Amino acid sequence: MALDLTQFHAAFFDESFEALDSMEAALLQLDIGAPDPELINTIFRVAHSIKGGSATFGFTEIASFTHSLETLLDELRGGRMQVTQPISDLLLKSVDVMRAMLRAVQAKQPIDMQRVADVQFDIELAIAQKGAPEVAAPAAPAAPPQAESAAGAAAPASRGPRQWQIRFRPFRELFARGNDPLRMLSELETLGRMSVRVDASALPSFAALDPEGCYLAWDIELEGDIEEQAIHDVFDWAEGDCELEIRCVPSRETPAAESTVEQPAGQHEDGAETAESSEVTNGAAASEGSPVSEHAVDALLSASDQDKASAAPAERAPPAAAAAEHAEHAPKADTPTISAVGDSGSIRVAVEKIDELMNTVGELVITQAMLSQLGRSLEGPMAERFRAGLAQLERNMRELQDSVMRVRMLPISFVFSRFPRMVRDLAQKLGKQVELRVTGEHTELDKTVLEKIGDPLVHLVRNSIDHGLEKPEVRVAAGKPPVGTVHLDACHRGGCIAVEVRDDGAGLDKERILAKARSRGLVGPNDVLTDEQIYELIFLPGFSTAEQATDVSGRGVGMDVVRRNVKELGGTIDVRSEPGKGACFTITLPLTLAIVDGQTVSVGSETYIVPLVSIIESLQVKPGSVNSVAGCGEVFSFRGEYVPIIRLYELFGVEPRARELHEGLIVIVEGEGRRVGLFVDDLLGQQQVVIKSLDANFGRVEGISGATILGDGSVALILDLPGIIRRAATRAAA
Amino acid sequence: MSRSRRAPVATKKRRTSASRAQTFVLGAECTLADARKLYTRLKKLVTSRAPVRIDAGKVRRIDTANVQILTAFVRDRRAAGRPVEWLAAAAPVTDAARLLGLEAMLELPTAQEARS
């Protein structure tokens, strides 16, 4: 059966999208005019990897585009072109195009070839115009050309001829991962003079051969003006699927090296040649002679100096001077080897597998609750030991649950990483100067929550830049620095994650919000609202104070959607603002959507779960402390504020055991910034509950977020407090 | 009894197959997706007593997996004293063999031989 390469597509897409994210991040860090060479290398590696992968999988359009991009990056890397603002913009556009192409191929949709062709044309034009650097980048300081680098004190790292020994030992599954050593060797050959020695000792008899397994290994010698990174780039895609050692030895390019440092074949690390190995030299390249035969000693000294200069801390290669001093002993002692093995501390697992695991853990939690309930009713000499065992089981269950939950956790930087680009583009578009500060990006959040929080955050950041931050001249006039700041922050807060979007702009304009609300009849002309209540108005559907709808912040459909999305995740959103100093939106999210710590309460014969995180207090009210207010139902005074009471039995149509408020209990809960008291018959206990969605089988019921199975096998509904508050308000109004 | 009856038949069969050289033509595309097919086809020939001739003149694309299969095939036959003859080898095949350092093991014809 032929190997089906499509099975590797998903991994290719995942890796490519991640790689594009890192490419974008690196591009945003590039300093115009004086870019960090390592950043350019990172960007180059990504383009190179995607090119290789897409060529392997037959995505020719992507391969062709990335080839052009790679050429441009190579020019930048080699210092033959400068990183200018237009080039930086072009590279960012290329990232967009590559992302769009990958998405299209992934979704089996046609690629927008016009867009691809436009950007590819721009890339090729930029490369073609490199001959006129003064026109393209008059102000950019030129990197020292290669010819000058040997003499110059600050020669670019790792310039000059070198000889590399590469030990490439593929793992058996290398082919199956879409890698072809032939392609790698072919690319290596383009870098310099190459000689290849194959080790076929592991090749089994034909009958025992797995046609899709890789049994061959290679020792490669490569000579020329080659940076180590360029070699790594060739093997980039195979990282993790092979053992790779790259070492630098003194070059044979100079005649001195030819006569004194040349290594016989036997000096390969492997020592003896196997019977199954042979050596092949690239004849055409090998016939090219060395150019400076008369200056052997000078050349050797020069090479040493050059490499001394190149021995920057960031370089992995050893100083060649030391290598020359120690002749053939040096490489083994000093050269670091880069092994692709062991670097990969992570594995890629399909989300479905983790969800299955999570479900199983959920079922175990239910079973454990069932056993706990059984244990409580047991009596006799064994009962205590049984309960002790159960307590142990409970602890272990919690640990298991935590571990599985941690597997689903990803750092919020996955979401934050999209913002530098967005902020840059928006600031450019709106003529504002914006600095984005990101803190707490390592805070971890459930993957599902993470995926859904992106859009609300995008809305908030866009709003901050569009409406919040002022134009530079306005800021300067107000005594502020011209550059506005948007601060993204994430942190743990009491079992939840709080994500803040803060800006130092003008803050929310209370007067305008109020005027708008009054003009729309949302607030009565004589109503007096607190600041918080005014700010809450922006979350009403269709509310916008933007004088002009822009394509940045939309048409006032943003904030209500933000709140709805956050609410769907079981979270809340609050806003604080100070005129002239800025606004701060805080989103509070649960750590996970799968399991919740709950308080079980009884109402009649029913049991409900109230999420523990929403409960402020549970208490019994005294008779007479409750007042009836027209239009609001019953309220009672709780720490100086009047809290409406919601009788759950009325809301859900259940026959209660207690109808008088002093006979039951009030659970004070908070949802969407409002407090209410839930009247229940009794509190039963606290336990972790596994949320089972009802949406698959039942219509959505406001006030219920899901269900769970209790220890005795009965089903309990989990209360959705914002929904309950809304539902109760509707009933009161009716 | 059975032995005396079987022997001539087997000998006859071997003689027939040994006398007729088998030509194996490689397809234009020899990529990983084709590797298993190539292996299955060659497996039938690896122990064949008949001379095997490989025509790789039409190959447009070949990868390491396929070159590796050919290498094991050629090596095993050579070890059994039944070398393989190359009728033709297209440039992608000779290039691949050179790059992979397998030119000698494959006993490929030189460029000149291939042309003749």
Describe this entry's structure for a reader.
The complex is a heterodimer of chains A (734) and B (116). With 734 residues, chain A is an alpha+beta fold. Chain A has five domains: 5-139, HPT domain (Four Helix Bundle (Hemerythrin (Met), subunit A), Up-down Bundle), CATH 1.20.120.160; 162-264 and 277-282 and 292-334, Alpha-Beta Plaits (2-Layer Sandwich); 351-410; 416-590, Histidine kinase-like ATPase, C-terminal domain (Heat Shock Protein 90), CATH 3.30.565; 595-733, Beta Barrel (OB fold (Dihydrolipoamide Acetyltransferase, E2P)). Helix content of chain A is 42%, strand content 21%. Chain A has a six-stranded mixed beta sheet with strand order 15-19-20-18-17-16. In chain A, strand 13 and strand 14 (606-611) form a beta hairpin. Chain A is flat. Chain B has 116 residues and is an alpha/beta fold. Chain B is built from six helices and five strands, in the order H-E-E-H-E-E-H-E-H-H-H. Chain B has a three-stranded parallel beta sheet with strand order 1-3-5, with helices on one face. In chain B, helix 2 packs parallel to helix 3. Chain A binds chain B through residues 1-5, 175-176, 180-183, 185-186, 189, 196-198, 200, 203-207, 209, 211-212, 214-216, 218, 276-280, 282, and chain B through 32-39, 42-43, 46, 62-65, 67-69, 71-73, 75-76, 96, 98-105.
Provide keyphrases for this structure.
heterodimer, A: 734 residues, alpha+beta, Four Helix Bundle (Hemerythrin (Met), subunit A), Alpha-Beta Plaits, six-stranded mixed sheet, five-stranded antiparallel sheet, B: 116 residues, alpha/beta, Transcription Regulator spoIIAA, three-stranded parallel sheet, two-stranded parallel ribbon
Secondary structure layout plus pairing:
The complex is a heterodimer of chains A (734) and B (116).
Chain A: H1 9-29, H2 37-56, H3 60-77, H4 85-106, H5 113-128, H6 133-136, H7 146-149, E1 162-170, H8 181-191, E2 193-199, E3 217-224, H9 228-235, E4 242-249, H10 255-260, E5 277-281, H11 283-286, H12 296-310, H13 320-325, H14 329-334, H15 351-377, H16 381-408, E6 409-411, H17 413-416, H18 419-430, E7 434-439, E8 444-446, H19 447-468, H20 472-477, E9 484-493, E10 496-503, H21 510-519, H22 531-536, H23 558-568, E11 572-578, E12 582-590, E13 595-603, E14 606-611, E15 615-619, E16 626-629, E17 633-638, E18 641-647, H24 648-652, E19 665-671, E20 674-680, E21 682-690, E22 704-709, E23 715-719, H25 721-733
Parallel strand pairs in A: 7-9, 14-23, 18-20
Antiparallel strand pairs in A: 1-3, 1-4, 2-3, 2-5, 6-8, 9-10, 10-12, 11-12, 13-14, 13-21, 15-19, 16-17, 17-18, 19-20, 22-23
Helix pairs in contact in A: 1-2, 1-4, 2-3, 3-4, 3-5, 4-5, 8-9, 15-16, 18-19, 19-23
Chain B: H1 2-19, E1 22-25, E2 29-30, H2 32-46, E3 52-56, E4 61-62, H3 64-79, E5 84-89, H4 91-100, H5 103-106, H6 111-115
Parallel strand pairs in B: 1-3, 2-4, 3-5
Helix pairs in contact in B: 2-3
